[in-house]
Amino acid sequence: MRESALSFTRFSFDDAQNWHVEIFASNGSFTASSDFYCTATALLAFSDELLNFPSSRDASAEFRIGSAGTSEFIHLRAYVFDNTGHAAIETRIERRGSAPHTASANFHVRCEISAINRLGDMLRQWISAPDRPMMWHP
Asked: Among 31, 30, 29, 12, which residue's Cα sits nearest to residue 20?
């Protein structure tokens, strides 16, 4: 089994307002990647949620591009999954279209809450200097 990871890479040919970003995610058994457009502000909001995660037992930190069932959907969700404080990050990536251009992945990366907080810190640092890919391992 390979190592779990989450990576963000900014393409150098985007514009200052709308970043073109590639996401790579793996839980060691399943892997998915896709590219999307978003603002640095949207990524910064997600990093803040991760840094302050969890605010309560039922809280989650979420990043979403598109919506389920549309041509492109990316959803990351950090959550606590039991009463002892074990956490995970759900990764859901969908690309709709005609065959052979469709793809779908949905899996979870188990990790400690402190690793989720560290992801938030790493993402915040990467946003301020996105010239190299950011790679997180729980």
From this structure: 12
